[in-house]
Amino acid sequence: MKKLIFVILTCLISSCNGWVIQPQPGPTPFLPPTPTPSIFTATPVVIGVNSPTPFVATSTAAPTNTNSPIATDTAASTTSATFTASPSGPAISIKVLGCNTSIDVTHGMGEVTNSFVTLTNTGGVELTNIKTTLFALDEGREHPDKTVELVSLPVANQVTIKLTVDSTYRQETPIQVEVTSDQGLFPREGLASCTDIGIFAPNPESLNTPIPSVP
């Protein structure tokens, strides 16, 4: 009779979870034990001494980037940007009026080529410390008047100068004129053969004097 009661009790107890033999308590096989996670309070509550309503303190972390400068967004400004066209930069027009030849006894040279050049300031700024130099393909010794220097050339003004190089006797003389100033170097102007200016040579007294340019 006692054995029958024991069997009945055993069946009743095992029917609670379906296992005849109960597993032993312990860690789950093949899985590492999981540590108990720490519990953090996301929003600490600070209760004031004299305030009946608790004060909730929140902390907001702002990301920073130390590798980049701070950019200022001016596009969101309510003030519209005004763009003003700036005046044009330095510019010059180089025009070779013509040439003639002569014999330079003063400097102990034979035939020299004289070139008459008009410079016009076509830019938006005054040109200062202008140097104009004449180059010839058949140039010999360096002539003292190879380069002419001017202090300044105002905007919309022009000046005519005379440049001289030592050239080969009775030969075609390809020339180039180069202009530099404090504002920079300008492109050269050249001629394969400089036309004889003849009787249209400028008055020597009018050379190297800036005057208003003709439109």
Outline the fold blueprint.
Blueprint: H1 2-14, E1 45-46, E2 55-56, E3 92-103, E4 111-121, E5 127-136, E6 147-153, E7 157-166, E8 175-181, E9 184-185, E10 189-191, E11 211-212
Antiparallel strand pairs: 1-2, 3-4, 4-7, 5-6, 5-8, 7-11, 8-9, 8-10
Mean pLDDT: 75
What structural category arises from helix and sheet content?
A: mainly beta
Helix-strand topology string: HEEEEEEEEEEE
User: What is the name of the CATH superfamily of the domain at 92-212?
Assistant: Immunoglobulins
Radius of gyration: 49 Å
Number of H- or I-type helical stretches? 1
General description of the model:
The protein is mostly beta strands. The chain has a domain at 92-212: Immunoglobulin-like (Sandwich). It contains one helix and eleven strands. It has one helix spanning 2-14; strands at residues 45-46, 55-56, 92-103, 111-121, 127-136, 147-153, 157-166, 175-181, 184-185, 189-191, 211-212. Strands 5, 6, 8, 9 and 10 form a five-stranded antiparallel β-sheet that branches. A four-stranded antiparallel β-sheet has the order 3-4-7-11, with no helix packed on it. A hairpin with an 8-residue loop joins strand 1 (45-46) and strand 2 (55-56). The longest helix is centred in the N-terminal third of the chain and has 13 residues, at 2-14. The chain starts with a helix and ends with a strand. Residues 17-23, 25-31 and 43-86 have low confidence and may be disordered.
Descriptive tags:
five-stranded antiparallel beta sheet; 215 residues; single chain; 1 helix; mainly beta; 11 strands
Quick rundown:
With 215 residues, the protein is mainly beta.
